[in-house]
């Protein structure tokens, strides 16, 4: 659809605001109960829902649990089966690392390993950014080269870090299996190459894991590393050229900034730490006149779900609801509120469940939905949509698409 959309777009003065509440979809803790969204007290979201169109979105396909990368790519209109990027490249680009031909970037988690190398905590208790930087410093001192290949290690945030393997004379492959089993009570996996070009990379990854564990053996909590999301340099059609938009990203976490940067959005500076909601609003307000599309990311609705903290996820939803009037005061012609995937606290992980979608504009048909919840979204006139449907709907509501055909 990208070529078709590109041919139909037209410039207007209207502004689009896409709010992505990361992992917002949920489940009740008990059968017959309420989800996190339905439990939350959200008067501002409720008022907006009564004036908007609602529906549901399957980000990738029925029954497929999306990662954050594919989920966001779909929301931006890129078919996630065609445009594939590993978490490593997203994180690397998000923190300003330049990737060259043949480099391989990989996203790392610091983890807690117990007796027998069994994983007790995949996120090492979510250490502070200061502890992360300290641990990365120790690894840098111990691992700067492996088998003649340069190794660069970068701090990201909390338990997250990035490793880049650089071997300019002989490009490395990125088609290999994860070390992270995405479960506890089991040992880390051994990286295995899926093609000849990736055999060297698999050897490097396994050597890195062994040396990191030896370096961190005296640590009670941050004493292991898990890898997933290997990737080389990805290329995407330009978001701005495709949609005729001046697009800006407002996010705190490197992976989301990296994804926005890869598709060609400008990444705005956000003051504050953690999810920095007030800083994000300030950045939006500051640059409101300079762009006509804004991607506004909210992270903690996801991480609280991953932690299995139902009530804290409810609280994070309520904090966004308190913030919503400040977004609406700017007067976006179109505002969408959606998730990039579901993260039910009950499952402590991403899930395949559709996420609720809200679109408000003067051209949106009011429907029967009364709240922004999973159950109410099922009543909405938007129905069940694929993730790649969202951008065309926003462009249409902003009157940025010409008629197709005679």
Number of helices: 14
Instruction: Write down the domain tally.
Output: 2
CATH class of the largest domain: Alpha Beta
Q: CATH superfamily name of the largest domain?
A: Alkaline Phosphatase, subunit A
Question: Could you give the order of the helices and strands?
Answer: HEHHEHHEEHEEEHEHEHEHEHHEEHEH
What is the 3D shape? globular
CATH architecture of the largest domain: 3-Layer(aba) Sandwich
> Could you describe the largest sheet, including whether it forms a barrel?
8 strands, mixed
What is the overall pLDDT average? Answer: 94
| Major sheet: arrangement of strands | 10-9-11-1-12-13-2-14
Radius of gyration over C-alpha positions, nearest whole angstrom: 21 Å
Assign the CATH topology of the largest domain.
Alkaline Phosphatase, subunit A
DSSP strand count: 14
Q: Structural class of the secondary elements?
A: alpha/beta
User: What share of the residues does DSSP label as strand, in percent?
Assistant: 15-25%
**Helix content range:** 25-40%
Low-confidence stretches: none
Q: Quote the distance from N terminus to C terminus.
A: 18 Å
Can you offer a commentary on this structure?
With 406 residues, the chain is of the alpha/beta class. It folds into 2 domains: 2-84 and 236-397, 3-Layer(aba) Sandwich (Alkaline Phosphatase, subunit A); 90-231, Alpha-Beta Plaits. It has helices spanning 2-8, 36-39, 43-49, 68-75, 87-94, 129-142, 199-215, 239-243, 254-262, 277-286, 300-306, 310-328, 374-377, 390-397; strands at residues 16-21, 53-58, 104-113, 119-121, 145-146, 149-157, 160-166, 224-231, 247-250, 266-267, 293-298, 334-338, 355-360, 383-386. It has an 8-stranded mixed beta sheet with strand order 10-9-11-1-12-13-2-14, with helices on both faces. Strands 3, 4, 5, 6, 7 and 8 form a 6-stranded antiparallel beta sheet that branches. Helix 10 (277-286) packs parallel to helix 12. The protein is globular, with a radius of gyration of 21 Å. The mean pLDDT is 94.
């Amino acid at each position: 659809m990208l070529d078709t959309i590109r041919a139909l777009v037209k410039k207007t003065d209207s502004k689009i605001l896409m709010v992505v509440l990361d992992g917002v979809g949920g489940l009740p803790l008990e059968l017959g109960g309420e989800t996190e969204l339905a439990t939350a007290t959200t008067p501002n979201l409720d008022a907006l829902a009564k004036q908007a169109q609602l529906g549901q979105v399957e980000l990738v396909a029925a029954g497929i649990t999306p990662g954050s990368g594919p989920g966001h790519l779909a929301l931006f209109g890129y078919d996630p089966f065609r445009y594939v990027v590993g978490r490593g490249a997203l994180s690397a680009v998000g923190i300003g690392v330049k990737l060259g031909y043949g480099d391989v970037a990989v996203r790392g988690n610091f983890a807690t390993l117990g007796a027998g190398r069994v994983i007790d905590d995949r996120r090492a208790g979510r250490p502070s950014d200061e502890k992360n930087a300290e641990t990365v410093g120790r690894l840098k001192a111990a691992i700067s080269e492996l088998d003649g290949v340069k190794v660069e290690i970068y701090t990201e945030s909390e338990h997250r870090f990035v490793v880049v393997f650089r071997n300019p004379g002989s490009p490395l492959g990125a088609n290999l299996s994860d070390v992270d089993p995405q479960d506890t009570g089991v040992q880390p996996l051994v990286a295995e190459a899926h093609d000849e070009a990736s055999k060297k990379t698999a050897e490097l990854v396994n050597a890195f894991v062994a040396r990191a564990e030896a370096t961190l053996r005296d640590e009670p909590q941050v004493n292991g590393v898990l890898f997933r999301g290997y990737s080389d340099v990805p290329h995407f059609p330009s978001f701005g050229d495709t949609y005729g938009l001046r697009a800006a990203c407002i996010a705190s976490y490197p992976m989301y900034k990296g994804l926005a940067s890869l598709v060609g959005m400008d990444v705005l500076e956000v003051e504050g730490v953690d999810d920095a909601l007030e800083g994000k609003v300030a950045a939006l307000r500051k640059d409101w006149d300079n762009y006509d599309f804004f991607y506004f990311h909210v992270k903690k609705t996801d991480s609280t779900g991953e932690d299995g903290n139902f009530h804290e996820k409810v609280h994070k939803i309520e904090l966004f609801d308190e913030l919503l009037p400040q977004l609406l005061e700017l007067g976006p012609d179109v505002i969408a509120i959606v998730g990039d995937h579901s993260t039910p606290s009950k499952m402590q992980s991403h899930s395949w469940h559709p996420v609720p979608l809200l679109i408000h504009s003067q051209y949106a048909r009011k429907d029967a939905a009364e709240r922004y919840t999973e159950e109410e979204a099922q009543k909405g006139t938007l129905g069940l949509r694929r993730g790649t449907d969202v951008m065309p709907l926003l462009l249409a509501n902003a009157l940025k698409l010409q008629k197709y055909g005679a």
